[in-house]
Amino acid sequence: MCNIKGNNEPKPDFAMLVPAAQNGGQRAMLAICSAFRPLILNLLKQSRFAPIRDDAASIVYACIIRCVVNYEGTSFDRFPGYIKKMAYFDLNNALRKETNFIKHVSCIDDAVLDAISGETIEDSWVRSLSELEALKHLPLHYLRILLWYYKFGLTLTEIGERLGVSHQAVSHMKTAALKRLKKELEA
């Protein structure tokens, strides 16, 4: 895994890198993360992880760091296999959570649809099926922002804290999501 065909880089010595990284060595941790870059690129290509493709790399890097910090083994021969197994576990877990989130989104109530579309109650009853379909076509990050804002009542600042961005960025994303939703409704 760490020595790809055509790659002249030497295979990393995990017996030296892991203890150094556990003692706070940033270069050692970076070398370990770099060694697993081919694994990450391979995982990103797999269609089963398409719903979480935007987050997959950060999920795997977080998994690698967590596994290195918590590794208590004395043999490092199977360390790459351990990382690979844990990365698959974390990605499958994230995929399951995302799937559950999508199922939850399909149960959006009429009040949220009214707030998003700005239409009267009578109009929303007529168009409710098309609105649900339009919401299903939105990218997940847009859908999350709209749900957090309209359904769960979070402020732009709270959403920004969850996403790690400013409230202005969330405001722009919300505006873009509403424009995209209107475009989907008109189609």
Automatic annotation (TrEMBL):
Domain RNA polymerase sigma-70 region span(s) in chain numbering: 134-183
Superkingdom of origin: Bacteria
InterPro entries found in the cross-reference section: RNA_pol_sigma-70_dom, RNA_pol_sigma70_r4, RNA_pol_sigma_r3/r4-like
A Gene Ontology BP annotation from the UniProt entry: DNA-templated transcription initiation
GO function term, MF aspect, one: DNA-binding transcription factor activity
Pfam family, one: Sigma70_r4
Protein name, as recorded: Sigma-70 family RNA polymerase sigma factor
